[in-house]
Amino acid sequence: MESREQILKEKRLTTRLQLATTRFKDVERERIWALATAHSEGLSIRTIAKVTGLSSSRVHQLLHTDEAHQIPDSIDPRTAYVSVEREWVLRVLKRVAANLDRLSGIPFCHLNHKLS
Fold first, then answer.
1. CA distances in angstroms from 74 to 43, 79, 93, listed in the order given
2. pLDDT tens-digit series, residues 39-93
3. What are phi and psi of 76, to 5 degrees?
4. Which of 34, 42, 67, 85 is spaced 20 to 30 Å from 25 by Cα?
């Protein structure tokens, strides 16, 4: 049987991995939107590849993903800011709750249901 400390440690580590995965997906999506916006504004695939350090074929692949065609209207290409959306706010609040959980020792699962 696992000790309470082991269970809490595993929960903390899995929560951290989940948060890192969510952050990575968000950044990946934002990068695809930036690539698509740059291309639609006239930058060539070669230029985009050079600036981002990606290969031209990878830029081409990313420009043909579903994400590249689902850029929210709320993005202002001049500033690259996304307006605040409920889902995003909830993700941020969950991240804050997880950080507070880590500091306080209260299991994240007790806080998680309040944010959903």
1. 21, 11, 21
2. 988 999 999 999 889 899 999 999 999 988 887 766 655 555 555 566 766 777 7
3. -95, 110
4. 42
